[in-house]
Amino acid sequence: MIFENRLCKKIIKTNRPRRRLTFDVIDSNPHGRIFSMRPTHTGTMSKLKNKKRNLEENEDEQLPIFDKDGGKDGPHLDDGDEDQGDLSESEESVFSGLEESGSDSDDEEEEEEDEEDGSEEKSSDVEEDKTDRQLSAKEVIKPQTDGQNSKEKKKKKKAAGKEGGEESVASDRDSGLQISSQVDEYEHDTSDEEDIRNTVGNIPMEWYKDYPHIGYDLDGKKLFKPIRNKDELDEFLDKMENPDYWRTVQDKMTGADIRLSDEQVDLVHRLQQGKFGDVNFNEYEPAIDFFSNEVMIHPVTNRPQDKRSFIPSLIEKEKVGKLVHAIKMGWIKPRRPKETTPQYYDLWAKEDPNSILGRHKMHVPAPKMKLPGHEESYNPPPEYLMSEEERLAWEQQDPEDRKLSFLPQKFACLRAVPAYSRFIHERFERCLDLYLCPRQRKMRVNVNPEDLIPKLPKPKDLQPFPTTQSLVYRGHSSLVRSISVSPSGQWLVSGSDDCTVRFWEVSTARCLKTVEVGGAVKGVAWNPNPSICLVAVSYDDTVVLLNPGLGDRLVCTASDQLISSYEEPEEVKDQLVQWAVAEGEGHEQGHRLILKHPKAVRQVTWHGKGDYLACVMPDNGSSLQVVIHQVSKRRTQNPFRKNKGLVQCVSFHPIRPYFFVATQRYVRVYNLIKQELTKKLMANCKWISSMAIHPGGDNVICGSYDCRLAWFDLDLSTKPYKVLRHHKKALRSVAYHRHYPLFASGSDDGSVIVCHGMVYNDLLQNPLIVPVKVLKGHTITHDLGVLDVTFHPTQPWVFSSGSDGTVRLFT
User: Fold this and answer.
1) Within its chain, how far is the Cα of 465 from the centroid?
2) CB atoms within 10 A of CB 583
3) What whole-number distance in Å separates Cα of residue 359 and Cα of residue 412?
4) Which of 93, 502, 684, 735 gives 100 a disulfide partner, CB atoms 3.0 to 4.6 angstroms apart?
5) What is the mean pLDDT of the segment spanning 539-548?
6) Using CB atoms within 10 A of its CB, is residue 800 exposed (0-12), middle (13-18) or buried (19+)?
7) Which residue has the higher pLDDT, 183 or 675?
């Protein structure tokens, strides 16, 4: 005790803080003290040591705050206001005897004293301050109020001037003792408590929605709801004008609006992000090993065991006695041992209605064995015994084909009958039959397979349609890509890769005229107007209008006059296509007009009236894929600003002003007058190759390279009404008949399939599609078969051109 007091005096007398080994009191008991040595700031420790010494001196005396005299020099209750914040956990720990190793307020005092002393030894003390701060933060976390109060105290001290020495230490000690007696430990209670103004408890607040009050306070008086007369407009204005609207929430317990503080908003944000609510919480702190792995020699407690742990319990004896009495009286029956004998039941029980399987709905009875007949007797009648031939025939048969599974034999008496050699085998098979018999009863639906096939009319009832090959038009040396028939049905034109266009007489297969052009012919089209005799031929980037000079001379001259009567307009506009009139040798061959295009032309098709001609130039990167020419005015226009996809083929509607454009997967229908897209048909195929429009105009067929033919009903849907997969290879061409309910498709498998396609005037009745005939004749060359098909304008005949260089007529 004397040693500690001397040490404290020595520490207090030092002028400025220095690092020195000092002793802290670890435990205060009447028998003795244990000291711990640790480095600390001597200036910081002086107050603490004085307070400890003061406590020891006044252990047996009454505290000065309770002095009866209450002299002038003694402490008063309002004296403590000046040093209210001086009390800290360090001081409380002195009274309780717990170890404390400095605090935040001590560190702040050190820092301020260092500043006052000047910057002489700043650099040398920086590291010491850091280490002290870490020590104090680890050992003690104080409430904020202590730090603030200590700062206020220090400011007041500075204002009054430093008095230094032991006097200031003594006054601090007295005020500390005085405050410790008044401190209320529940004054700063930080536990999370609910708002106890409303005492209704944990009930749904919806129960109060029809009442003017929202609960009751501690005195039992009603808590009335705040008046809420805001309508939606006021709410909106409040939302726009009130800067704190976003952080205002309604308290369900009181009905009042509460503005959330920054700390609460930050807490909400942290919880929304899945973080911990406490900012200072470190989830990655190192684990503390509470239980050491070293085995301790001494037990945790040395208390000797009780006597009752060695004596039988009287309470247990009483309980056991009651149980024994109950068992004797029969009130409690002990458990019976389970019967270990296995239970067997009849798998095929049917006769007994009480058995489980007898009552089962799906019960299948065992198949009955055939009762033995005369042939199984040991002494059968002679007609049941087999002759030698029958025996040989029986042995040659397969076991499953034999009528009897054994040979009947005759014995003189029953004693002479030997054991049956197949007895075990047959018993085993019988057991297998019982074991493997399917237990599930299948409900068989008796369906006639013919009923599943749709009722289609017989092809005989759908005549006429082409059935046989009548004529073959030979003359081309390469594959014939395109054919077309004149409106009268008397002439046929064909274009081939041998750079020639041939005109044939349909009825005789005689080639009347051959016109040579400057490239492989991709498409030919005869003008559908009977009063004009013109044929459009496309090769490379050129389209030539030919006058073949066949048929009526008046029609041919009228066609030439129509072309020669053209007068050039005064203002010549630049056009996409160069129009030129044929002269010289070309004119003699029949060339009338030559149209030079910017790209290779793949298809040509005429409008029904014969004045407009559409050309297709497939090019994925360009908007110029389709052009429409007007022959009478020699005008060319590009109907599309941009093309969506690679155009495969185009066609004019036979009656209405519609234009059909087929790309790889879709068919788009445009209204030429309104200049807008009216429909987009989805072909449900990978690549459309060809297209044809029904003469009625309400149905379209599309052939594709993935062997499908899709029939669209424009009034029904934008998806195919029917998809036919009759061909084995890619479809190259499809065509409708102008008058008969027929359509045909040509494919690379070398066949032409003719189908009956009846379209009814009744809108409620769907079209009837029946395949009627497969026409074969073309030979497959270079994996190509039929390249083009077209119908005769008046007869139920179909023409087909193939890769074998021939054109064939089926009638």
Assistant:
1) 53
2) 10
3) 49
4) 93
5) 90
6) buried
7) 675
Whether the CA torsion 673, 679, 683, 687 is positive or negative: it is: positive
Tell me the average pLDDT of the chain: 77
Backbone phi and psi for residue 278, each to the nearest 5 degrees, phi listed first? -80, 125
Report yes or no: 695 and 681 within 8 Å, Cβ to Cβ: no
E strand spans, 42-174? none
Please, are residues 614 and 605 in contact by the beta-carbon 8 Å criterion? yes
The radius of gyration of the chain's CA atoms, rounded to the nearest angstrom, is 57
> Which pair of tokens denotes residue 9?
């005096």
pLDDT in the model for residue 139 = 41
Q: Within 10 Å of residue 299's Cβ, how many Cβ atoms?
A: 7
Q: Residue 520, SS3?
A: coil
**Helix %, strand %, coil % of the chain (to 5):** 30, 25, 50
- Across 599-687, the runs of DSSP E, i.e. the strands, are 603-606, 612-616, 626-630, 635-637, 649-652, 658-662, 666-671, 676-682
User: Which of 281, 278, 240, 239 shows the shortest CA–CA distance to 257?
Assistant: 239
150-159: long-range contacts, CB 8 A cutoff, minimum separation 24 = 150/85, 150/86, 150/88, 150/105, 150/108, 150/109, 151/108, 152/85, 153/82, 153/83, 153/85, 153/86, 154/108, 154/109, 154/112, 156/82
Beta bridge partners, 37, equal 23
Query: Residue 799 pLDDT > 80, yes or no?
Result: yes
* Rounded to 5°, angle at Cα 132 from 131 and 133: 90
The type of residue at 337 is P
Burial (Cβ within 10 Å: 0-12, 13-18, ≥19) of residue 727: buried
DSSP string, 694-744: -TTSSEEEEEETTS-EEEEETTT-SS-SEEE---SS-EEEEEE-SSSSEEE
For β-strands 222-224 and 248-250, DSSP reports them as unpaired
Residue 348 has which token pair?
Answer: 């095929």
Residue 330 structure tokens: 């029969």
**What tokens were used for 6?**
């001397």
Q: Closest Cα partner for 127 from 39, 48, 49?
A: 39
Rounded Cα gap, residues 797 and 793, in angstroms: 9
Q: Is the dihedral of CA 553, 558, 559, 564 positive or negative?
A: positive
Residue 225 pLDDT exceeds 80: yes
What's the longest Cα–Cα distance across the chain?
153
210 is written with which tokens? 């029809």
Mean pLDDT, residues 177-198: 53
- Among 74-88, 290-304, 404-418, 661-675, the minimum mean pLDDT is found in 74-88
Pull the structure tokens for residue 471: 């004529």
Taking the C-alpha atoms of residue 125 and residue 438, their distance in angstroms, rounded to an integer, is 96
694 near 736, Cβ under 8 Å?
yes
